[in-house]
Every structure is written in structure tokens, then in C-alpha cells.
Amino acid sequence: MLPILAPYADETTVSWCGRVARFHTGLTCADFLELMRISQLDVMDLSDYAVERLSKLTGVSETQILRCGTQKAGERLLTYNGEIFGSTFITRGFTTYCPACLLDDATEEAHGDRVGRFSWMLDPVRMCPRHGIYLTRRKNLGYFERFQNMDKVAPSDQELSDQVAVAEAASVSPLQMYVGGRLLGAVGPGGMDAQRIDQAARACEMLGVYRVHGAHTDIDDLTIQQWDEAGSVGMEAVSQGAEGIYQLLEEIVQKATVEKRWGGPQSALGGVYKWLQFNTSKQDPGPIKDVVRDFIIDHMPVEPGTVLFGATVLQRKRHTVTTLSKVSGVHRKTLNRALVLTGLLAGGNPAEFESRRTFNADDGEALAHRITNSTPIKKIPDYLNCNRTQAQMMVKNGILNKLGNDPSIIGGLLSNVANDDLDDFLARFRRAGQPVASAGDGMADVIAASEIARVPVADIVALVLAGRLPRVETGAEELRFKSVFVDPENVRMVSEAEVAGHGLSPKNVSDLIGLKLLAIDLLRVNRDTDGELFLNASTITNARGTVRYCYAKEEVERFCEKYVKLQDLAAEHGIVTRTMGLKLSKAGIEPIMEFKSLQAKVFRRKDL
């Protein structure tokens, strides 16, 4: 057929065939195709027969004809310009057009032909970039409208004018630009280009719509404008890959939680979950299902064996208090308190659990295991082969830790000590010694050594674990706590050295100042007229709770510089004590405390 009438850029096969029919034969498109023995279905599907036949008839190359529409690429799959996508990516069941474009065709085309645009048939394309308005899209009245002959499916010019008058202004969305560019060979975000174009677009739209309108919105009632907005919101997340999708999903879940919907992943993610789990469209959603599956497993309590988006969950990653209680058999209140106190539920309320909060499943199950495999303090003596007092002192001094690790816990399961901790303590305690068949000369088990050296058992244990004792032996393992032998003399010497390392003892200070021990105690608790203590002391508390006072050498020197005994003052002036006492009395200078309290007279040097 001459002259050759080539299709316009973006023109559909149906539209081009209609123009060819009118130009060369004066027939309608349907009659022309029937005359040429080409079915309408072959034209819509661009079958190889139709492409070859039309090319020979019109002189237009097959490559140009293939630009007018899609071809089948398998079950529920189509292809266009090297891209393969699901059949629902093309809106065969809808009639879509720009009323302004069709009105322009009436004046711009030689015969007033209406030109159908291929891009109008793409599901994510919803606005006309030429006129800056939203397209008109409606459901087809019947199967016959799938042919999308604009002369048949679009209304009269008057109705088109009315539609233009009320059309809503719009700009091309990022998703529409991406779809159009990719079909022409442009490169987009890597994560989106790595999947089918329809999968990328649908992921953007579905995630966006439930982010904007809520997890449980009815998407059947949404307008073309709302879908356009949803695609833009979703693409902002999807173009960033898994990280961006995770953030958007968290926002969907957070909003659903505020609405107090909670019943697992379906309740939290609503339509996103249903779309991927039930897949009523029978179209492969692509990589998005793997990302959402990972998100659910990473954030929600999903049991192993659950089939999620077509794949079986092999390992649980998250627990709630309720699910962990069900698995472990530990009461929810006990678990919640333990989880809060150990930091697995940071910032939680130990007295009231939150059913929606989740935590690491491995850590939670490990904690539950410790709880169910633990020993009450009163039964630790049987476990370790010690007495109850010694067990209590080791717990009190932090050598053995309660499950709850909170001093305020005095009863219940959380006051127990995990068996793993008891075993670990025994192993570390025994590793500190040299294995022997029997205790050497002068050696005794820790309990006996405590009585000999007058040092609490817990303090001796601490010295052993810290490697502070020069001689430690380990006997038969069945003796457990009593299998570790120490030298009581070593214990006493090291313990005294520990105290000495903190400062001078009251006896040392008494000897240096020349006052009795009782006087040292009085100077420690009484204050001078300036409000300061006469002597400042630090404290050392042993495992029994016994408090010992120590004095820094500098503190004693300060006292001697600030205060002086009557005897020392008399010696400084080369007179007898009685004479010095009379001189001070006549001058009205009083001692810092009464003689009967300190058993000595002590004066302030500044008063002299």
C-alpha cells in the first residue's frame, strides 16, 4: 500500500490499523482487518502472523510495528522492547485516554482520526505530560472494548470537552517517569531495574497505598489520583532498596499499632500481607516478597514451619513475652520482669508487660533456659557443697548473681542462681589451683581456712578468683566447693595487706598521734567549729559486712598540722606540761574536746 503510512511514536497497533484502513480503503478498522484476514485478537496480541502480514501489506518494518504494542512471552506474561512483564501491567480491562489529546487529534489529523496511545494502556501511567492533567480511566463495558478503538470506546467530542473542563491538573509522577524511561531503555535505581518492570511498579504502588491510607484500607475504592500519590510515596522507599522498604514497613506497622490492631503480621501489615500471602492475581510479585518476609521475621514473632509468602520459615528470630512463655513454660510475669531487668526489653515496665513488644528470640530463649534451669539460694549449699551462710554471702558480694541481677529481688524464681553460672563458678574456682591428690602441709579448704585466718569465706573466694594467693591447690572434683585448698597464713597476710593498701589502720593512727583508739574513733565522728570532721576516714567492708576504717597518711599529717597535744606543745616550748596547761587556761584557750572524752588535751594551733 502506497504511500507508506507509518505509525506514530507511542501509537497503538489498533489505532494505526484504523488510520491505514481509512486512508487506503475507506473502511473501518474492523472491516479492513476482516478483509485482510487478520483477527482483532492477533492485532491486540501482535502475533507473529499479524506482524508479518501487516508489514507486507503496509510496507512498514516489523520493528516499527512491534513498537505499537506488546507480544505474549509465556503464561500471563507479555514483552515490549526487551522488557518482560505480567499481563496485568497492561490495562486491557479498562478504557484509558486523555480527553484533551483526543480533541487535539480531531483538528490535527487529516481525517480527524483519534489516535490511541500505547502509554495509556500502562497501569502506572495516569497523567498526560502534554496537557498536565490526569487521564480518564474507567472499567470496560464488556469484552468487546478490549480492542480499544478510540472511535468506539471514547465519548463524543462534547463529552470530551466537558471532561477537559473538570480535569484535575497534575505533574508526571516519579513512578510514571521511571516506567516510561525504562521501556525506552533508560537506566533507573538498581534495586528496581533488577526486577521486572511490573514487579517494581506494583511494589511501589502497594507499599505506598498502605503507607498513605493505612494498612487496612480498601484499595478498590481509591481514585486514580490516590494511586498516583501512592506510587510516588512507595517509589521513594523502593528505590532505596531493602533499607528504604524496611523504614516504610515500620511506619505502616506503627500506624496500625496506634489503631490498636494486633493479631500478628496480617494485622500489622494488613493489605501488604494479604497481597503477598494470598496472591489472588496469580502474578509473581518479585523480590518484594523476600524483603517483606525478612522484615516480618526480623520484627515479629513467627513460628518455625510457618509458610510465609510461599516459603517456609526455618528459624524464629523474635519473641513476645506471650510466645516465649508458651514455648518455655515460664510464667509471663516472671519472664517480663526478667526481660526488663536484663535489658532485653529496655525501658519496659517490670510489673506490666506489653503484648506487642518483641525481642531477640535466641537471647530470650537463653534467658528462659537459665530461669528453668536454676537453683534457689537455699539449695545452693547442696549444689556446691557449702553452707547456706556462705552461699548467701557469695550472692550478696556478687560472686554469684541472681537471675534478676537486682538486689531488691528477695524471692521468686528471679532470686535463683542459674545452674550454668554455678557450674561456671566452680570451674573457674578449681582452675585457680594446682591439682593434688591431697591437701599439702598447712593447707585447708576455704571454709576451714576462713575460721583459722578470721577472714570471711567470700573474701577468700574473691582472692582465689583474682589470683592473689600464692598457694592454691585443687583436690577431688566431687568435693566441689571444698575441693579448693588455701594456706590460712597466706590468706591472713594478703587480707591484711589489702586493708593496708587503703590507708592507715586506727591502731597505726593511734601510735602516730599518741592518742588512744577510743580517741581516734571520737575524732572520726565529731566535727570542729568550722563544720569539718577532725579526722576523715575511708571504709572497707568485708564479705560479712564488717566495716573497717582507714586513714590516708596525708589526712593524719593534716591533723598534726592543725592540732597539737598539750604534752607536745609543752615540749616545743621547753616547759613542763603543767605550766603550759596553766598558761593556756589563763589565756582562755580551750581544748577541742573534754579531757574525759579523749583522755588527753588537744588544742587548735590557730588558737595559740
What do these coordinates show?
The protein is of the alpha+beta class and 608 residues long. The chain is 48% helix and 10% strand. Strands 14-16-17-15 form a four-stranded mixed beta sheet. Strand 5 and strand 6 (133-134) form a beta hairpin. Helix 11 (197-213) packs across helix 12 (224-238) and helix 23 (446-453) crosses helix 25 (488-500). The model has no long low-confidence stretch (mean pLDDT 93).
Short description:
48% of the residues lie in helices and 10% in strands. It is of the alpha+beta class.
| Count of DSSP H/I helices | 31
Shape label: elongated
Strand content: 5-15%
Strand arrangement across the biggest beta sheet = 14-16-17-15
Residue ranges: pLDDT <50 for 5 or more in a row? none
Provide the residue-averaged pLDDT: 93
Cα distance, first to last residue?
133 Å
What structural class should be given to the helix and strand makeup? alpha+beta
Largest sheet: 4 strands, mixed
**Rg of Cα set:** 45 Å
Helix content: 40-55%
What is the tally of beta strands? 21
